[in-house]
Design brief:
The chain is of the alpha+beta class. 46% of the residues lie in helices and 20% in strands. Mean pLDDT is 81; it is low at 256-278.
Length: 298
């Protein structure tokens, strides 16, 4: 899994209230590019670009600003961070969105080095595999985790009831009658929950309850998914390497002896460290000076 894809998967969802509507969004920005996922609970849109696209789009939208793509990525991270993570700090940008055919254009307007700064996120409909990776599989994992949590709590309640019963049999009494509770019955509790609590608990609304209450569990589940995927990749690579080495060894054993010895060399590709949005460099910006128009006879 590439750096941007893996980084985006482990980001929590945020709730955005725009003038047009509300959106769920998550983003991951490094010095190499950015990945963005947006949903209005009806559709899901996605954009992932590298530095070449960032540089070209910056030239089209900000002709008076000249800077390397890393500088624009760093500025975009500063603008999106208050919106997606640090909600206590207000964003210095204005956001709006437009629907163009099947695409979603998220427009950003702010200032950079005293000059107007514009940016458009061109999000296209996300693939089914991407929706499964960021929504279906994590939500299924969260449901299973919550079910396991309910079972653990039910077991704990049964143990507490047994402890209280032991106190009663030993002659202990409550000092206050209002603290008395009935023994826990799991089936009765679940039936009562389905009738009384389920309608309110399942009120999705605009997605804000999901963002406000469940993101720590969402991030934990997606991190677990990434770790399992990395283990599978490591096992597959070790299996393929072992098979390759065994094939090479058997091939060398079947070769006749030669005066010149053959050496087997294995090349290991270099892995770049994972970039984080907080450690990106901040290159200096330079304003493009406008040339004064010269007349024909001047």
């Amino acid at each position: 899994m590439e750096e941007l894809e893996q980084g985006l998967l482990m980001q929590p969802w945020a709730w955005l209230q725009l003038a047009e509507n509300s959106l769920l969004a998550k983003a991951y920005i490094t010095k190499h590019g950015y990945a963005l996922l947006v949903s209005d609970l009806q559709q899901v849109w996605h954009e992932q670009v590298d530095t070449s696209v960032v540089s070209q789009r910056a030239k089209e939208l900000n002709k008076r600003l000249a800077a390397p793509p890393e500088a624009f990525l760093c500025h975009l991270d500063d603008l999106l961070r208050p919106l997606l993570k640090d909600t206590a700090r207000p964003s210095e940008a204005t956001f709006s969105c437009d629907h163009v055919a099947e695409a979603l254009i998220l427009r950003v307007r702010s200032e950079l080095s005293g000059l107007p700064f514009y940016w458009n996120f061109h999000c296209i409909p996300a693939s089914s595999s991407l929706v499964s990776q960021h929504l279906i599989r994590p939500l299924m994992g969260m449901s299973l985790a919550l079910q396991c949590q309910v079972r653990e709590l039910a077991t704990l309640l049964y143990m507490k009831d047994a402890e209280i019963q032991d106190y009663h049999e030993s002659g202990a009494t409550l000092s206050r009658d209002r603290l008395k509770t009935e023994p826990f019955e799991e089936n009765s509790f679940l039936e009562q929950f389905m009738v009384e609590k389920l309608p309110e608990a399942c009120s999705i609304g605009n997605g804000r309850p999901f963002v406000m209450n469940l993101q720590s569990l969402y991030v934990a589940v997606t991190k677990q998914e990434v770790q399992v995927g990395q283990k599978h990749q490591g096992t597959d690579s070790q299996t393929s390497s072992s098979a390759s080495l065994q094939g090479t060894d058997s091939h060398l054993l079947n070769q006749p002896e030669e005066p010149v010895s053959s050496a087997l060399s294995l090349s290991v590709p270099e892995i770049e460290p994972t970039g984080t949005s907080g450690s990106m460099p901040r290159p200096q910006l330079s304003k493009v000076k406008r040339k004064k128009p010269r007349g024909l006879f001047s």
